[in-house]
């Protein structure tokens, strides 16, 4: 029975989904965090540098995927 249900749901049939009462999951846009890089650069005109807790960050309002930060320097801890 589970094989048949799996096939019906896997095909994307709206009728099968409504008959079986399968709830549609909300679409979630993924938001990535900072890329961690040893060498930072500005990738477009909207990118700019900021310094947070002694670490250099690249922020971008136009393209959020351009966000990046420096590698945390462990040697400064001691």
TrEMBL record:
Q: Which SUPFAM superfamilies match?
A: Ribosomal protein L36
Alphabetically sorted, this entry's keywords are: Mitochondrion, Ribonucleoprotein, Ribosomal protein, Transit peptide
Q: Name one GO biological process term.
A: translation
Q: Does the keyword Mitochondrion apply?
A: yes
Keyword Ribonucleoprotein recorded: yes
Similarity comment: family membership? Belongs to the bacterial ribosomal protein bL36 family.
Q: State what protein this is by name.
A: Large ribosomal subunit protein bL36m
Q: Which organism is it from?
A: Pristionchus entomophagus
